[in-house]
Write the structure tokens for this entry.
Amino acid sequence: MYFKYYLTILFYFTTCVRCLTSPETKTGKGKNEEITVRYTIRNNLAKPNFEFEQNVTSKAGQPFIRFMEQAADDDKNFQFSSTYFAKLGYFIEKLGKEINREGVLGLSYWQFVRAPSTVLPVGVSTYIPEDGDHIIMDYVLEGNCVQN
Ligand code: B12
């Protein structure tokens, strides 16, 4: 009788401890495991047009901005500048080569997209990429921000 109670308590205890200590993330990759994300920066809007791509491998569970930092360390074409906004995190201002906006009508910005065409509803400090994601920073004309 007592042994049965003992077994039941032991079962719930081990299940609970495993649940609290498990390093698994939502994607099924442990926090210490690495994931690979394909990262493209694309400017088809202003001169000079450019497109650069690389695979970035880093720890699972980190926001995309950490992958952007690593991409910039690996290749200067991926250098960027940003502005920090309270609660929202970093807004990406410039990416890659200096852009000449002459001839571009309207306001433009770097749109944060998951390929092929999902405009992400959060910024680079919030989005946690999954293994195999293809992320595109696309230089576009303003007007496509996901509204609240
Ligand atoms: C206007 C606007 C934009 C404009 C901002 C420029 C402009 N000319 O005003 C543009 C179109 C460029 C834009 C872009 C993006 N935006 Co926007 N934007 C808004 C909007 C509709 C109003 C912001 C505003 O004017 N506030 C009033 C002013 C007085 O306050 P402010 O603090 O100065 O506002 C500034 C910041 O909000 C900043 N900003 C705007 N968007 C974003 C997004 C992020 C992640 C950050 C850090 C800052 C930021 O620009 C504003 C003007 O300077 C809000 C919705 C809302 N209800 O707030 C969404 C909102 C803030 N944006 C959002 C998002 C997701 C984005 C993008 C990431 C979309 C994308 N996938 O590309 C991009 C940013 C990409 C990047 N380069 O980092 C989300 C943020 C959600 C979250 N929790 O992270 C919001 C809340 C919309 C939503 N989904 O509900 N955006």
Observations:
- Helices lie at 2-21, 64-74.
- Residues 2-21 form the longest helix (20 residues).
- Confidence is low (pLDDT under 50) at residues 7-25.
